Protein 1
Amino acid sequence: MKILLLGATSPIARALAMRFAERGARIHAAARDAAEASKIAADIATRSGADALWGTFDAADFASHRDFLERAIRELGGLDGVLLCFGTLGDEARALIDPGEALSLVNQNYAGAVSILTLAARHLEQQGRGFIVVLGSVAGVRGRARNYVYGSAKGALHLFTQGLRARLSRRGVHVMTVILGTVDTRMTWGREGTLLTVAPERAAASIFRAWEKKRDVVYVPWFWRPIMGVIRIIPERLFKRTNF
Ligand SMILES: NC(=O)c1ccc[n+]([C@@H]2O[C@H](COP(=O)([O-])OP(=O)(O)OC[C@H]3O[C@@H](n4cnc5c(N)ncnc54)[C@H](OP(=O)(O)O)[C@@H]3O)[C@@H](O)[C@H]2O)c1
């Protein structure tokens, strides 16, 4: 298997890529920072014994996506799967009052994903096989006062992958949406930990198991499905007064 890993510096991404590499997959680890990407590829190769390459990718640099993807596919010698793991909370408070920060969050979490997935999907559908795994968020299930800019980008990403799944399922390509709860990463560093926070390795193990079962939408960890089920049905007049 030849797999493109986008957002390779995320610990969830690295742990997930390791699961595939341990089964012999060839990984192309792409990140904004070339030095980090090369170290991550070397680490995956050393620990798994599989082949790993690296490249630079910026979700917000839309104009570079076509060349980036063509090069990655050439270097990998094909493409069987894409693991889309990039995302950012940015400055959540500033995003509520500054259109520049708000649009930057939308570009990095949503528009960048639309751009690269549209290109990758074209390749996969033409070959009639492959898969795409997209990391979404519970923040994308209901708009919250504190982080609705990030949440709306993730929510839009969920809808986009839902439609992509429906289209590509007829073309032999499987698309899985992962709705992540709180994971202990740089993204949540410095925030109050909760009992619901899990380690990146645990999240990656659940994502990999769900991928093996060809699930369409998976909550990781699983208990976020009932939690969000309840949060989703709270009437709007009450929800707007909560501090979730
Ligand atoms: N941690 C959580 O509780 C949580 C909850 C729900 C969903 N998620 C989602 O899980 C995924 C992984 O996040 P994480 O928790 O592992 O956090 P993380 O360690 O901060 O990883 C985020 C990744 O996204 C990359 N990234 C950010 N902006 C980018 C851009 N413009 N172009 C390319 N790459 C970019 C980062 O690259 P750099 O190293 O270059 O910054 C990094 O690789 C994200 O999609 C996140 O939204 C996380």
Protein 2
Amino acid sequence: MSNGSTAFFSKIKGNNAYVLADSLDDRKRLTIQVKVFTPVFKQAIGLALDKAELWTKLRDPKATFHILDLGCGEGLYLPILHQYLLERGAKAHLKMVGIDLDSTAVATAQEYMTALGLRHARFYLHDATMPLTKIEGLSLVDPSSHFDLIFASALLMHLRNPQATLHYIYEVLQPGGAFYTKDMSWSWDNSYPSPAFTRIIHLAQQATLKMLGVDFAANPKSFLQVAGFESIESFEDRYAVGGHTESGRRMLENLLLVQHAVRATLIQSGVISAREYDGLMEQEFREISPELEGRFSTVNTIARRPLH
Ligand SMILES: C[S@@+](CC[C@H](N)C(=O)[O-])C[C@H]1O[C@@H](n2cnc3c(N)ncnc32)[C@H](O)[C@@H]1O
């Protein structure tokens, strides 16, 4: 990449390095991705709450349980979490907060929650690379040690300094509070047996890795250890891309939309010419077939803040 490309990336959104640039295309494809990831999301949250021994508090009707979704996008996970906790017997008052630095997504999230009747969910515009003790518009009695559960789905993998954000997360988590992060490594070989498809995905991954200078998901545990977390556990989840299954077809659609969302960024940053990119996209549409199936993985990491 040229120096010009670094400058382009730095202009996307302040110090946000989100390569998909918060586009409408990206928002659309996330609705598909959330559906595919939901079973593992519930599993990981359940595990995080087990490890932190938070079910007693959750089942206490007199308790207030504070939840934060960091990099919430349109807030798609909070209603899923709310429903899951109710199904598992939660009786506590669930206060949910989502933050993102995309104002359109934050507004959509708030509308969506209101439409669902989830009145105790609030969304705020905030940069997760800044301390979480001061979120404009959100007043917390004790900003440090506030949240019982914090999760970040596909956020830390997009940050240049995930360690700093982990420090801010740790700070606002209650002692004994639970944390869950889901990420994809930029160096993993996410494959699909179409040469054009694979080339585009690899170009996007390599450009992002170069721009970020860090691959959080390659070793999330070490970052969490440095931040002071304990009971850290990671597990991978693998998905089919394409093929005959419903989730495989959704994942393929998701990754094609990723390619579309990242197109402008890659071209403007000089990674590839428009002509070559569009040529590759045409080629991949000829190559894609239901007979072909690829693989895609993410890593789920859960932990808790020590009690003392
Ligand atoms: C891949 S999307 C994931 C959205 C949602 N968590 C999900 O899993 O569907 C990444 C989100 O992180 C947000 N984001 C990126 N950098 C951020 C930052 N520094 N502070 C807050 N949000 C950020 C983006 O705006 C985007 O909504």
